[in-house]
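Following up on my earlier thread - several people asked me to post the actual chain instead of describing it. Fair enough. Here it is, all 136 residues.
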Amino acid sequence: MDMIIDFPGGARVDAHYGPYTIMTDQPPAGGGRAEAPTPFALFLASMGTCAGIYVLGFCQQRNLPTEGIQIVQRMHRSFETGLIGQVDLEIQVPPTFPEKYKDSLIRSAQLCAVKKHLETPPHFEITTKVVETNLA
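Reply from S.P.:
Thanks for posting it. Predicted structure:
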């Protein structure tokens, strides 16, 4: 499962994973042109959209309409570290959403793989490798 990260110019850093290219950029203050989200914005979005996949699947399995459902994600920074210390996901449902499914909807969002990886983070090993390039 390899992802290739490259540097297409400016402050852009792109990730290539299978047939997809995920572009990132920095704001002008960071030397970029704000042509794509920052890597950190994508990281934050991965939490909410992952939970959203499970909410969507829950509703689809029960033929519940998703119109009017949205997730509001709130990040709270730790004053001590400056890092995100808490993430709140509020699943907003319309008044017609069946009461009997609300707790199950929360449980489905908690199945998010991104959340599970944050709760049990992977070990990072960063190395360098010299690769010969053929400039012919």
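The longest strand covers residues 84-92. That should answer part of your original question.
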